[in-house]
Amino acid sequence: MKDQAERLREMANQIRQQIEQEFVRQVHRARVVAISSGKGGVGKSTLALNLALVLCKQGKKVLLLDADMGMANLDIMLGVVPKYNLFHVIQGRKNLHDVIISGPQGMSIIPGGSGILELANLPASDMKRLLVELIKLDSDYDYMILDTGAGISKNVTSFLLAADDVIIVTIPEPTSITDAYGVLKSMNRASYNGKVYLVVNRVSDESEGIWVAEKLTIVAQKYLDIEVLSLGYILNDPSVSEGIRRQQPFVEIYPRSRVTHNFKRIAEKLLEAHREKRLDDLQEAKQPGIRNFFKRVLSSSK
Ligand SMILES: Nc1ncnc2c1ncn2[C@@H]1O[C@H](COP(=O)(O)OP(=O)(O)O)[C@@H](O)[C@H]1O
Ligand SMILES: [Mg+2]
User: Domain tally for the chain?
Assistant: First the structure.
């Protein structure tokens, strides 16, 4: 009789083979950007949605995945009621293609499941099955934005570790900054080797945004030896919540506001960093993209 460890090894091998077949079949490489934070309620979903929109408007093909397992709310922010969500995929009742809905500006959205306890604590085997499904979408997109949960749960960490880029969101409150540092620390401990970016949300003015970003980047460099690049800040503006109440994305209803300008600037800085990174990668012949993403997830959970 086979022991459990052997069965697990077999399963991992099968998944790896499946993925390798996908690697061979596909040529396109989507970039995986995970958005996370130490504390909840700091604006991850707001950033994920508006960043996705700005990228779409620039002609990029974007998939927005609500990966805040168990606390998903992108569908609510958009005022849509999806028939199926990630939960159905994990249960094996639907495949990912069936759950994708189209959002504003032609973006694709994979809704998460809200209030579903099982999603918040997925067993490694379910997580892998989900990832194998996701890899098949690689050739369809330029960007895959993952709106992850806060903190350092197992689900969140595997998404972060596997991404090409992680954007940490913080607000200027000391507790939020400390918790953001905690996420960096755990990424460091788990040997994350992608890029780390920072967005400071809900600042009262530009100087506060710059000050918080400087403080965190200097500490991360000094104590963790992590290079954190600031993508900028977003002003605190009550109309952001109003957008959420109206169930419409902010940059769509207030195209000329300063906050929309903040989102655009963040997208520009990210694209700029990617252009530079691509040149570096070409030189080093490294491959970014979803396939690499899943390769890293699978090897990290071996
Ligand atoms: N720049 C901002 N100015 C004012 N309110 C904001 C801003 N960003 C986010 N919010 C509000 O903060 C709350 C939490 O935002 P959300 O994006 O859902 O956070 P998270 O996804 O991190 O839990 C929402 O009510 C949202 O409207
Ligand atoms: Mg959220």
Answer: 1
CA 10 from centre of chain: 30
User: How is residue 261 written in tokens?
Assistant: 């300008």
Is 17 contained in some domain? no
Residue 46 Cβ < 6 Å to ligand 1? yes
Judge residue 71's burial from the number of C-beta atoms within 10 Å of its C-beta, 0-12 exposed, 13-18 middle, 19 or more buried: middle
Span of 52-56, 95-99, 257-261, 267-271 with lowest mean pLDDT: 95-99
- The residue whose CA has the least distance to atom 24 of ligand 1 is 241
Q: How far apart, in Å, do the first and last CA atoms of the chain sit? A: 22
Alpha carbons 259 and 243: distance in angstroms, whole number: 12
- Domain-embedded: residue 12: no
In the sheet that holds 101-102, the strands lie side by side as 101-102, 108-110, 62-67, 143-150, 31-37, 165-170, 195-203, 228-235
Query: Could you tell me how many residues make up the chain?
Result: 302
CATH number at residue 228: 3.40.50.300
Smallest CA separation from ligand 1 atom 27, residue: 241
Q: What is the pLDDT of residues 132-162, one digit of tens each?
A: 787 778 889 999 999 988 887 777 877 787 7
Give residue 61's domain range. Answer: 30-300
Question: pLDDT tens across 109-126, in order?
Answer: 999 877 666 677 788 788
pLDDT of residue 291: 62
User: Cα of 51 to ligand 2 centre, how many Å?
Assistant: 14
Closest atom of ligand 1 relative to the 201 alpha carbon: 1
Q: Is 67 in the pocket of ligand 1 (CB under 6 A)?
A: no
